[in-house]
């Protein structure tokens, strides 16, 4: 039988893969994709508990998370494009101006 | 009750797509793996009786965000960076951190499930509350020249209707704030993406 634990474990696995992508990859585009994976994991968690508790509020929160993800992707990709114009690269190691 | 086959099938799809996003060298391949993962998550939303959100997931993620990613990959010329190493120098340490995270929080998830901390043993409840909602509205009628208001309670069916009533009745202010947020994001993206800032005198 599939319980909410299965969904939560899957969502957590997805979250960990996303965190790994943020930490490991050097390409800014792939880092942004990994952040989308993390947001998807959060949505899956919200909706799984919404289903288990029979409460619609989880789904409504997921709508807002999707809205935030859309805005974040638009701004993030615009930043990547302007960074590419400035540096000619989308590599995270090339933006180290703030390094002390 | 959800058929276990669908859960395992789409869960495998989601995890394979996510691993592909992190492991693929070329960003285009990562983006296609991300699409696979998004579609799997949308299918899992259907198994959790969140049909409206499954449709939104496909429209917004697989439609909108994916197109944005592909256009950006097209705009930044990545051939130049193809030969370089694509993972960070300290990837080993990062993998160790991720594994520790997996072990600790995964242990909590599985442990709390074993200890019976979840309501009703984590069983998925009857989904009827997610697909119906009760609304009260006032009907105004004119009887003998006077206006008579009678409150009527009715049950509307359908997950989309339930989400719509929730959004427009209970979460109206956050909904409007979200629309302002989207406007700000749109203006910000346009300004950041402009090629030159031309001075207007």
Q: Quick check: average pLDDT of chain B?
A: 86
Instruction: Give the CATH topology of chain A.
Output: Helix Hairpins
Q: Give the H and E element order of chain B.
A: HHHHHEEHH
Assign a percent range to the helix content of chain B.
Answer: 55-70%
Structural class of chain A: mainly alpha
Structural class of chain B: mainly alpha
Q: Could you give a short account of the major beta sheet of chain B?
A: 2 strands, antiparallel
- Rg from Cα of chain B: 24 Å
- DSSP, total strands of chain A: 0
* First-to-last CA distance of chain B: 66 Å
- Number of DSSP strand runs of chain B: 2
Quote the beta fraction of chain A.
Answer: under 5%
DSSP helical segment count of chain B: 7
Radius of gyration of chain A: 17 Å
Sequence of strands across the biggest β-sheet of chain B: 1-2
For the record, the CATH architecture of chain A stands as: Orthogonal Bundle
- Low-confidence runs of at least 5 consecutive residues of chain A: none
Overall, the morphology of chain A is elongated
Most extensive interface, chain pair and sizes? A-B, 72 and 91 residues
Oligomeric state: heterodimer
């Amino acid at each position: 039988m599939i319980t909410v634990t299965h969904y939560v474990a899957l969502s957590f696995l997805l979250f960990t893969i996303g965190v790994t992508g943020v930490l490991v990859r050097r390409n800014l585009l792939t880092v942004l994709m990994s952040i989308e994976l993390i947001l998807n994991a959060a949505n899956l968690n919200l909706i799984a508990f919404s289903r288990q508790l029979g409460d619609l509020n989880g789904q409504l929160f997921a709508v807002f998370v999707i809205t935030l993800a859309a805005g974040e992707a638009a701004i993030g990709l615009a930043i990547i494009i302007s960074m590419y114009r400035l540096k000619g690269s989308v590599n995270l190691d090339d933006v180290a101006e703030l390094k002390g | 009750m959800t058929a276990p086959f669908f859960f395992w099938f789409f869960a495998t799809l989601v995890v394979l797509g996510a691993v592909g996003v992190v492991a693929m060298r070329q960003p285009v391949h990562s983006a296609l793996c991300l699409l696979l993962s998004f579609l799997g998550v949308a299918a899992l939303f259907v198994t959790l009786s969140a049909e409206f959100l499954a449709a939104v997931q496909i429209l917004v993620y697989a439609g909108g965000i994916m197109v944005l990613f592909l256009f950006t990959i097209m705009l930044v010329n990545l051939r130049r960076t193809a030969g370089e190493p694509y993972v960070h120098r300290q990837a080993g340490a990062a993998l160790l951190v991720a594994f520790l995270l997996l072990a600790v929080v995964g242990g909590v998830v599985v442990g709390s499930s074993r200890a019976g901390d979840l309501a009703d043993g984590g069983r998925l409840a009857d989904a009827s509350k997610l697909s119906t909602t009760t609304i009260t509205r006032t009907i105004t009628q004119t009887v003998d020249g006077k206006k008579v208001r009678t409150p009527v309670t009715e049950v509307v069916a359908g997950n989309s209707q339930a989400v719509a009533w929730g959004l427009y009745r209970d979460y109206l202010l956050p909904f409007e704030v979200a629309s302002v947020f989207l406007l700000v994001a749109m203006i910000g993206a346009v300004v950041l993406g402009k090629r030159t800032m031309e001075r207007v005198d």
